[in-house]
Amino acid sequence: MNTETSRALFGRAKALIPGGVNSPVRACGSVGADPLFIQSADGCHLTDADGNRFIDYVGSWGPLILGHNHPAVLEAVMDAARRGASFGAPTELEIELAELITEALPAMEMVRMVNSGTEATMSALRLARGYTGRDTIIKFDGCYHGHADTLLVGAGSGVATLNIPGSPGVPASVVAHTLSLPYNDIDGFRKVMAEKGDSAAAVIVEPVAGNMGTVPPADGFLAALREETRRRGALLIFDEVMSGFRVARGGAQILYGIEPDLTCLGKIIGGGLPVGAYGGRKEIMERIAPQGPVYQAGTLSGNPLAMAAGAATLKELKKPGFYRRLEGLSGELAAGLLKAAQDAGIPAVGNRVGSMLGLFFTDRPVRNFEDAKTSNLDLFAAYYKGMRDKGIYLAPSQFEAGFVSAAHTAEAIDRTVGAAREVLDGLRDRFGK
Ligand SMILES: *Cc1c(COP(=O)(O)O)cnc(C)c1O
């Protein structure tokens, strides 16, 4: 495959943009590849700067549940753009998107729009601290909640990993109130809540984890979070930036029937444009300025183009049978990939919730970050490169979820599974049992 143009563009980018990219994982560093520069996309396909065409399972890291350039989304954005890009004043589009969100997630009685998932989680935490008058935040290893200081706590094993900033530039004092616990460890969580729950402002979790690969919640895990937070007077925050409108229209909270106090959204609700949102019970949300004293603002928040793209997307998701079809395609893909690995004698575990999925190259069930980290990353890198050479565009990391969109077809899934069979078979000698 000729990727000369991408290589040249990467060279130009590296001189001006740190690492040549505006978000680290795009650089493909962990799989030892160079990034492809994208020229255009449509449906489930991407075309790179050299004219190579790929079946896309990244979907802009989650937002594009309808695929690229869905006609209704495109039309809505064009229409909004013709009326003006930004006003810094309220528009009806903001109400429309808020209505589409709150009707799908009834636990979000009120919602505030922001510009990214990071802003949503950061603001939800401030609100939780402002509302409870407490400082401690409990999160889980391997869950990613954006790049705000408070939440960049290094994942670690054991019970509570305290006070370890996950990046230079994050003062230890800023994360002194953040605890990170193993995902899906119900007993460990209950123990920490018994000791520290009374000082906890919030427990924040990805109710379906998607940032250590795809890891579903264990039976009873989300219910335990709900029970303990209620008992101790802490707020439960579901970070559904990825899972919202993805694993079900109402997200994981509807799928598993657990109601959080606050919810963070992003990705799909922006239809490919930069959007985030946080919301929850009225009594809590009313603490936000200008209604209440907890400050949070944004020059471009509620941007009309972004609201239009989001609303057009969410309307499509209401069509009968939408999630059923997506579930069918995703199930086919997950089963096909796992079988391809098994037939090649390569140890693999397939996790999937709805159209969020992942294949871990390990032989133990993946229930948390420790399990995920037992994956063979050399094997993943070889698999990634092999698939890319065959026109299949996967996320360049073992610890990212894959996404199926409504624009994928049974033929695209078949082609993908066929490519995986060839690639994994070719890796049998190096990595097979
Ligand atoms: C992507 C993601 C974020 C961060 O959103 P950005 O828009 O990248 O800031 C936060 N939480 C979860 C669960 C995510 O998947």
Tell me about this structure:
This protein is α/β, with parallel strands linked by helices. Helices cover about 35% and strands about 15% of the residues. It is built from 14 helices and 15 strands. The protein has helices at about 5-15, 70-80, 90-105, 115-130, 185-195, 220-230, 250-255, 280-285, 305-315, 320-345, 370, 375-390, 410-425, 430, and strands at about 40, 45-50, 55, 110-115, 135-140, 160, 180, 200-205, 235-240, 260-265, 275-280, 350-355, 355-360, 390-395, 400-405. The strands form 3 sheets. Strands 4-11-10-9-8-5-7-6 form an 8-stranded mixed β-sheet, with helices on both faces. Strands 1-2-3-14 form a 4-stranded mixed β-sheet. A 3-stranded antiparallel β-sheet has the order 12-13-15, with helices on one face. Strand 12 (about 350-355) and strand 13 form a beta hairpin. The two termini are about 30 Å apart. The relative contact order is 0.16. The site of pyridoxal-5'-phosphate has 15 residues, from helix 4. Pyridoxal-5'-phosphate binds near residues 239 and 266.
Strand order of the biggest β-sheet: 4-11-10-9-8-5-7-6
The class by helix and strand makeup works out as: alpha/beta
Instruction: Categorize the overall geometry.
Output: globular
Radius of gyration: 21 Å
Q: Would you identify the CATH architecture of the largest domain? A: 3-Layer(aba) Sandwich
β-sheet strand percentage: 5-15%
Provide the domain count. 2
Please report the number of helical segments: 14
CATH class of the largest domain: Alpha Beta
Give the strand tally: 15
Determine the fraction of residues in helical runs and give it as a percent range: 25-40%
Give the full name of the CATH homologous superfamily of the largest domain: Type I PLP-dependent aspartate aminotransferase-like (Major domain)
Query: Can you write the helix and strand succession as a string?
Result: HEEEHHEHEEEHEHEHEEHHHEEHHEEHH
CATH fold-level label of the largest domain? Aspartate Aminotransferase, domain 2
- Average pLDDT works out at 95
- State the separation between the terminal residues, measured CA to CA: 30 Å
The profile of the biggest β sheet is: 8 strands, mixed
Uncertain parts: 155-163
Ligand names: pyridoxal-5'-phosphate
